[in-house]
Amino acid sequence: MYSLLFKSFFRTKIFLVSLVLLMSVGVISIFIGKQYLVKQEKTIAAAQVFQEESIKKNIEYHSEDLGLLLYYLRFTLAKKPENISAISIGQSDVNPLLQAVTIRGLEGQKYDTDFENPSLLMSGNLDLGFVIIYLFPLVLIAMTFNLYSEEKELGTWRILAAQTSGKAGFLFKKMAVRILFVFVVLIVLMFLASTILQISMSANFWAIFLQSILYVLFWSALCFWMVSLLKSSSFNALALISIWVVLTILIPALVNNYVMNTYQVPEALDAMVEQRDGYHEKWDMEKDITMNGFIGAYPQYINYDVPEDKFSWIWYYGMQYMGDMAAKESSEEMTEKIMLRNTVSENVALFVPTMHAQLSLNNLAGTDMVSHLGFLNVLTEFHEKLRLGFYDKIFREKSASAVDWTKHDIKFYQAEHTFSWLKLLLPTLFITLVIGAIGGFNLKKL
Amino acid sequence: MRKNVIKLLARQLWQDAFRSKVMLIASALMLFLLLFSAYSGYENYHDQNFTRDEIQHEVQESWENNPDKHPHRMSHYGSFALRLKHVLSVFDLGMENFVGNAVFLEAHKQNTVNFSEASMSTGLLRFGEVSLAMLLKVIVPLLIFYLGFATIAQERENGTLKLLIGQGITRKEIVFGKWIGLWSLSLIFLISIFLVLLLFVLLESHNSMLTDSFLRYLVLLISYFLFFGILSAITILVSAFSATAKSALVKLLGIWLLFVIIVPKSLQAMGFYLYPTPSKIEMETAVEHDLIELGDSHNPDDPHFKALKDSVLLANKVTDVNNLPFNYGGFVMSKGEELSAEVYLEHQEGLYEVYHKQNNLERYSAFINPYSAIKNLSMAFSGTDFQSFLHFKDEAETYRFKLAQDMNQLQMDFIPSKGKEGPNTISSDFWKEFPPFQYHFLSIREVFKNELTSLISLFLWSILSVFGLLKLSTNLKAI
Description:
The complex is a heterodimer. Chain A is 72% helix and 3% strand.
């Protein structure tokens, strides 16, 4: 029975079209991921060169004055590139891969962006995640919308019905053949991706793998349910495409609009202005105001002199620090708001498999918003460590030779992704089972 | 062609449409989406502009309230430029949320425009955004296909097409009657959305802007009007050339998916693949490299600035820079600023050149994909395209440059040279004389220039549609 069903399926035009479409777009998407990884590597290499050369050059000019030298020098913290991110590029094209910061105020540097073509950002990356989330359902729809209705419309259904004992079983098998084919393509693409992109078989990879399988299964159940209604081909096509539009375009976009409008982040702009004013106003104030704040945070520097009548680096870097402090509250509120946006989106996504698939793919690939916030947190720690490493030497008016510059190469941030299998798989699994059961129930009446 | 016959056929299409469930569901859905996107679009526009305007004022106030100080302190104090939204961004969000909103303007340095909504969003943003234009660009085309796929194919399947022709109605009348029926049906959506939009335009445009906004509005209205005409023609043509209504529907759905979702995205990705862009750090390295070649004002032995110094000394017939009639430090900084801005802008120009190449692939596809034409037109005339953003960036950079150079000039004029008598600060009155940053939107003439390709292709598509329908009128198969 199955071999016949396979044979007849392989002879259909839609089989060939789907195979060619999915495989070609799938492979293209993998290579786009590859290019993205290459660009990351190039950027990091460039940052490395930049840092080395700028240290060398600036030491040439300002070797006597460490305070001035460090006014110019920038130190890089980069996200460690992970090949798995090429599967789902997510928000990692909007957010920069690395940040090169001076030891002056961090707030003014933390949110600097990299260059990206906004047209590309808007249209989004054609990564494997896109192929899975958008194209696989379309192919499933194209292959199954007339599963029953075609036989009915061509008049072959009566003959079939007369010859098979289980009509429902027949439809189910016919469906299974098509779903199986889609799964095979998905699995082939997944393993192609893991080879071409050299992704290690970590828990995250398997989680992406399972989430994708489950997602395709969800669409299979939906198509199966639509078939089980025994409507005409035109109705099915119209209804399934409408469902696709609602699930992959309308609902996520509506939720996104809602989240963005409800949780606006004017704090971002406030923090930007507060940092500048918090720093600059100190130039015109008593030095004590700056020093009290600075020493309050770092009492270890209490013994350094702050001359009242002339410039000193401890005062200067104290003022810079005070700028960051002025923006601290707004900056934290901004982070909270962004996290809130994320939480609300994730919670809604539990009920919408398309959104859930996209967000969890990004999360597993380490390309989501939360991962970038993690980077920004570590950047703040990195910045403080740098400052504290240099302060003593600057305040003692040492020269550049007091620092071992070879230690100051580019540093990396390694994200830790934790995820819960239950939260990852359960929502889609539950929805799939419910829809599949309703479909099965409908067919029983056949 | 007889007018009343065409009217009759068109009316019949309306009646059929309103009898079907599709129209009912579609209208209900569209009404909900219209209300939602009008509300959320306006809320976004209003709230964002309110916040930005407020901060822009705050920034100016704090600038003016600075006490007497050295002008170079002020050029480091700097200013901010905040990007204001055009009122038509309520209609088409375009790239609004993918470009930055605020930039810090200071001497010596071109900062990036930060805090785009995208940088504060989750991955959901990539599913797209709901806006009034998105409904017209993405959803209504699908509805036109839904409502029109059966028009001719179904009539033929039922045999009614033969009857119509038998009754003396010409093929041309049938084709154009159906076309006008479908087109006018789609205009229900167009008109309701543009009526809502008109309200916003009238409400939010201040006298000076009203003409400009209204012109943009008109162009948008005409473009979408044509776009729907083209789509209706495509629907009629596909329906006429399909054996069954079912196959017409499948073809039309395929066309929609291909032209609205798959092709634009693939071409954008291909453009990116073909023309790689440098990262910021790579460009900064290149800029720094060029600057050192040309003249590094930080290097005391730099030949460029040494030669400059010698020529200045010679021209003023003095031997020491401290004896010059102006502050030499201010002079060197102004020359350095000039040089670094020039080099930076040159590299930036190169970067934008690459962006244009990346985007052109999709832009020129308008000749085979009318959706691309309307997409680019719609963004541009709503003031939410890339060019509008670049215009903001240019204005911000011009302001930054002027700020830095004005401060340098003040230093040259009023700060005494080293070893000379006099205060090291100047009066705070000077700060008040420096005008605030004011953003002006791109003029509509510029927008026309930028969107010439899209306009031409939309025009060609319109002609092609009529031509296709005329052709169909001669060889429409009745059976």
